[in-house]
Write a structure and sequence with these properties.
74 residues, mainly alpha, 0% strand, elongated
């Protein structure tokens, strides 16, 4: 699970760095949202007890994304 945690943290840092360099508001906003999703997923992994490696990371990301995204309704 440490590998998945490190990867989410790395992706978070990369997204934040790229957002800082971005000149387009839409790109910056998207990168910041992805960085936030990665942070939430990493925190969820840290909060979980050790379990099935990659499956646990995927489950944590699903939970994090479902908690932060509101459904689009017209």
């Amino acid at each position: 699970m440490n590998k998945e945690l490190r990867e989410f943290r790395r992706l978070q840092r990369v997204c934040l760095e790229q957002a800082a360099l971005s000149t387009l508001d839409l790109a910056r906003s998207g990168l910041l949202k992805v960085a936030d999703d990665c942070r939430i997923a990493a925190e969820a992994i840290e909060a979980q007890s050790p379990r099935g490696g990659f499956a646990g990371a995927v489950q944590a990301l699903k939970l994090a994304l479902s908690a932060t995204r509101a459904p689009n309704r017209l």
